[in-house]
Amino acid sequence: MRGRPLLYTSYEADSAMLPSASKKVAMGVLLLVAFTLPLQLIPGLKWLGSNPWLVVLGQALIFAIGALGLNILTGLAGQVSLGHAFFMGMGAYTAAILGGETGRGVVGFGLPIWIWLPAAGIVAALIGILVAPTAVRVRGLYLAFVTIALVFVGDHIFRNLRIVSGGPGVGRTWPPLEVKLWKEEEPLLAVSSDGSWFGIDFSRQAKQYIFLLGLLIVFALFHKNIARTRLGRAFAAIRDRDIAAEIMGVDEVSYKALAFAVSSFFAGVSGALLASFFGSRTPESWDLVLSVTFIAIILIGGAGTTAGAILGAFFVVMVPRLVENFTRLLGELTGGEGVLAAIANFILKSGANDFGLIGTSVIGPGLSTFQVNLLLYGLLIVVFLIFEPLGLYGIWLRVRNYWKGWPFSY
Amino acid sequence: MTTSARRSSLGIFSRLPVRRIVLIVLGVIITVAAIAGARATLATGQYSGRVWQDLFVQGLARGSVYALIALGYTLVYGILLIINFAHGEVFMAGAFTTLFLAGYLSSSGFMASQPVLSLLIMLAFSALVSMGVALLLERIAYRPLRGAPRLVPLITAIGASLFLQYTFRGFYGEQVRAYPNIPGLTGDWNIFGISIDRPRVVVIGAAILIWSSLYVFIERTKTGRAMRAVGEDREIASLMGIDVDRVIVITFAIGGALAGMAGILFILLFNQASFDMGFVPGLKAFTAAVLGGIGSITGAALGGLVLGLIEAVGPILFLSGAGIPSVGQLTSVVSFTILVLVLIFLPGGFLGAPEEKRA
Fold first, then answer.
1. Distance from C-alpha of A21 to C-alpha of A13, rounded to nearest angstrom
2. Which of A141, A150, A289 to probe the B interface (max B CBs under 10 A)?
């Protein structure tokens, strides 16, 4: 069977996690590179292992966990939900109550991470189960709207429950990413401070990156196993035609409840990690924009695939950096002359009366980098759905198939 | 053995009529809570008859704006069976762009000398801008995806909506801009012995006029008949010699124009415009369309008015008596609760056919 990686002689081989030897090798190399990134060993990738980039990557890892969750619900089970931010917020505030500190008008029990992180997921999952019956009654487009209602309800709750959230515009302190046995002073595994692990000195950012990478791997395995087993097939059946699925014995109510529960579990964990990672989140940050960002992630990455959701998360989190560089480039161009300078001038908004789209300063007229991202997400969603419905993953498949058949790729 | 055990544990919901019981119990709880809240509020007696009357008219005025936007949703849904999620942005585009025209009219003194004419010009201009945006949307975001599953256009629409919002924000800034006051539209008018804010009278009157001309257009003209035919069955309609693409374009154009006019009426009520002004009214109009029965033109009008009334009166009537803080902020929550309840208990709305079980 050598040289025929797509010839499977057993069902197990067909549904294996990494069905061919080359995939196993590629995954091994990828993991090795990912874990050694902070050591800055590889010549071309040293910049990616620097501390500012590790923060970006850390955020991408957290977003990837949340995106995997939404991917289960939307990509696998076909239920479009715009309420992802609500579940993330629920998880984050559960974590804050259990793991945060009391003070400045907010409560917190200061419990260790092995309690608050799973609890964040579980509370979100329970709320997900409560919401799920609506998805049986309300379908497709309507479900998307109903889940928007969740975001608005959540917004009101988070703003007004000051004892938990700290109040609008203020926020609260969040539990740090530290592995402790109980409330002792010295953490078992110090993630959020500089120090040495296994005899190697790591910065705080590097430690957080490695910790989050480990978590992402756990969740990605979880996701992959859901996707390739009985549960994933049931979800896909419901996605493709729910009545047919029910006739074949897939109980719609239970499986939709399960999809919501698992998806919300991922969302809760991701929300808790996000708040803990950045250490500051106001009640307003769990809004519709966050939900749409996650929709953008799975659509840009490729709905329904594990790799797609992760790719999408990295892409969407990295875009801001590209926009920043692009804006800087434009700023340099406006100084010159000719067509390029004119175009740059058209796009950039340097003062209140200057015509343009992107602002040069953080506060002031024009769009900030964050807002340009939203504009780009909107554009990318449309472009990807029209030209490449499988997302980045689809592009990767096409590139791979081209080289697989090379020089006879037609 | 193990598989049958697993199946029974998963199938437990479907064998017991749990779903129906839960729904009924939920319905009873909500009704009781609403009645109790209303009683508690009325018992306090802190709101006079004048306040209720004011809220009622305010609700009608807001409701007629929602009704006009809802018509755009309903027309498109009736023909393409998709929900134009970016319709709120179409509404915003018209109203926001007309701001500049209004500023010019106001500063040149034309508005002071010809208030009625300038209001008509603003309505026409806003309708044109919104129509243009709606047509672009149709061409770029919907037509390439016409054969795709129905959820795909919804998601492109979310994308398009973000894109439009932030393009406007980028070009025109994020601050809320005040509209110039139209002279002659301040103060009250006395109608049937009730004094009503003048803008509200204009808004309600204009909405009735626009709605009835649309109704006549759909029911009496050849194009209207073609639209209904396409809504009935697109393929058969094309066999009968109807240019389906043209009809769809016309539908988007009409929906856009209605949204643009609704934008100006909205501004008469609130006197301000901002880049995100379309989002919440868009969602509420969608709620109104669903409430009335999506796909039905009369339903959209009915749903808009009912939603406007509930939104104006509801929070105070049902919630303030129950001691819930800051009821004023809850209008969005109230209208969404209504959307959820309607979808759960009355999926077809007041006048629509119940939706088929497909996604």
1. 11
2. A141
Give the confidence band of A216 by pLDDT, cuts at 50, 70, 90.
very high
In chain B, where are the structural domains located? 68-277, 279-359
- Ranges of each domain in chain A: 45-287
Q: What is the mean pLDDT of chain B?
A: 78
- Listing DSSP states for B30-74 in one string gives HHHHHHHHHHHHHHH--S-HHHHHHHHHHHHHHHHHHHHHHHHHH
A73 close contact with B: CB closer than 8 A: no
| pLDDT at site A5 | 58
**Which DSSP string corresponds to A10-71?**
SHHHHT-SS-SHHHHHHHHHHHHHHHHGGGT-SGGGGGGGSHHHHHHHHHHHHHHHHHHHHI
Over residues A101-106, the mean pLDDT reads 77
What CA–CA distance (Å, rounded) separates A115 from A119? 6
Q: Are the C-beta atoms of residues B271 and B176 closer than 8 Å to each other?
A: no
* Confidence band for B358, pLDDT divided at 50, 70 and 90: very low
Nearest by CB to residue A138, choosing from B7, B171, B344, is B344
Tens-place pLDDT, residues A255-313: 999 999 999 999 999 999 999 998 878 888 888 888 888 988 888 888 888 999 999 99
Residue A361: C-alpha distances to residues A342, A346, A348, B166 (Å) = 19, 16, 10, 17
Cβ of A388: how many Cβ atoms within 10 Å? 16
Residue type, A115: I
Q: What are phi and psi of A379, to 5 degrees?
A: -65, -45
Q: What Cα–Cα distance (Å) separates residue B46 from each residue in A20, B51, B58, B265, B316?
A: 74, 10, 19, 31, 11
Is the Cβ pair A357, B336 closer than 8 Å?
Answer: no
Residue whose tokens read 């992760």: A310
Does B18 have pLDDT greater than 50? yes
Q: What would the mean pLDDT of A214-236 be, rounded to a whole number?
A: 93
User: What distance in Å separates the CA atoms of residue B351 and residue B291, rounded to the nearest whole number?
Assistant: 9
Of the candidates A80, A156, A365, the beta carbon closest to that of B333 is on A156
Given CB atoms, is A156 within the 8 Å cutoff of chain B? Answer: yes
> Which residues neighbour A197 within 8 Å (Cβ) at sequence distance 6 or greater?
A207, A210
Give the model's pLDDT for residue A267. Answer: 95
Instruction: Mention every residue, 6+ apart, whose C-beta is less than 8 A from residue B138.
Output: B248, B249, B252
Q: Which of A382, A388, A390 to mutate to test the interface with B (most CBs of B within 10 A)?
A: A382
Nearest-angstrom CA–CA distance, A327 and B312: 45
Secondary structure of A266-320 as H, E, C letters: HHHHHHHHHHHHHCCCCHHHCCHHHHHHHHHHHHHHCCCCHHHHHHHHHHHHHHH
pLDDT at A272: 94
Q: Are A334 and A326 in contact (CB under 8 A)?
A: no
Q: Is B19 exposed, middle or buried (0-12, 13-18, 19+ CB in 10 A)?
A: middle
ipTM above 0.95, yes or no: no
> Which H/E stretch holds residue A209?
helix A204-227
Q: Would the pLDDT of A235 be above 50?
A: yes
Q: Which two tokens stand for residue A303?
A: 């709905």
> Do residue B169 and residue A371 have CB atoms under 8 angstroms apart?
yes
Is B254's pLDDT higher than 70?
yes
Specify the range with the lowest mean pLDDT, choosing from A176-190, A343-357, B236-250, B286-300. A343-357
| Three-class secondary structure of residue A363 per DSSP | coil
Quick one: pLDDT at residue A122?
A: 95
Q: Which of residues 38-67 of A touch B (CB under 8 A)?
A: none
Question: Which of A328, A356, A253 minimizes the C-alpha distance to B170?
Answer: A356
